Amino acid sequence: MKPWDGLFSEQDLGALLGAVAFAAVKHQDQRRKGHRHLPYINHPVRVAEILWSVGGVRDMTTLVAALLHDTLEDTETTPAEIELRFGPEVLGVVQEVTDDKSLPKAVRKQHQVEHAACASPRAKIIKLVDKICNVSDLINEPPADWPKPRVVAYVDWSELVVAGLRGVNPRLEAMYDDVVRAAHTMLAASNV
Ligand code: ZN
Fold first, then answer.
1. How far is Cα 133 from Cα 172, in angstroms, rounded to an integer?
2. Backbone angles phi, psi at 149, to 5 degrees
3. Can you tell me the distance from the alpha carbon of 177 to that of 59, in angstroms, rounded to the nearest whole number?
4. Bridge-partner residues for 31, per DSSP?
5. CA of 15 to the centre of ligand 1 (A)
6. Active-site residue set
C-alpha cells in the first residue's frame, strides 16, 4: 500500500473494512478476560482506533495489521489466509506481533521483553497500543480469577516490554505512561 497522501483510495478503505469483517468472524466465539466478558473484537477495533485518533497513524498497513493483530495468535487463522486477503506486508507485521505459542508462557513473555527493541516501527506501535489496552482493561475490568499480584505482575511486565518500544510515537508513549500511572495509583489504593 502506498504512503498516505491525504486521501484514502478505494483499495485502502476496502482493506480496512475487510480487516474489520475478517477479524470479527475470526474472533466471533471469543470473549475478553474481563469480568463482563466483552466481545473479543472490541479489543482489536480499539487498538486500531487509538492508533488513528491518539497516534495520528494514517499508514493503512499498520491500521489493517492492528485489526488483525491477534488473529494468528488466538484463532485458527493461517498466515496464508492473511497473505491472500491483505498481502505480504500486512502479514509480516501481524507475524511480528504474534507470540510463538509452541513456547511456554514464561519464555514467550521474556521473548517479548528481549525482542521489543528489534521490532519494526509498525509492529512497535501496535504492541504499544496493545499494552495500553490490556493494562487499562485489567484495571477497569479485572478478570474475576486474577488476584491482585497477577495484575501487578502484568503491569510491571508490560513496562519492561514498552521500554523497548519507545522512540516511534511520543503521543502513544505518553498515553501508555498515563495508563500505567493510573494503574499503579488504583492498585496501591485497593486492598483486594
Ligand atoms: Zn491484542
1. 11
2. -60, -30
3. 24
4. 39
5. 20
6. 73-74
39 three-state secondary structure: strand
| Contact residues for 136 (Cβ-Cβ < 8 A; gap 6+) | 179, 182, 183
pTM value is: 0.94
The C-alpha cell that represents 61 in the structure block: 498497513
Mean pLDDT of 129-144: 93
Q: What are phi and psi of 79, to 5 degrees?
A: -55, -35
**pLDDT tens for residues 92-117?**
999 999 998 889 999 999 999 999 99
Query: Is the pLDDT at 126 greater than 90, yes or no?
Result: yes
14 C-alpha to ligand 1 centroid (Å): 22
pLDDT at 110: 95
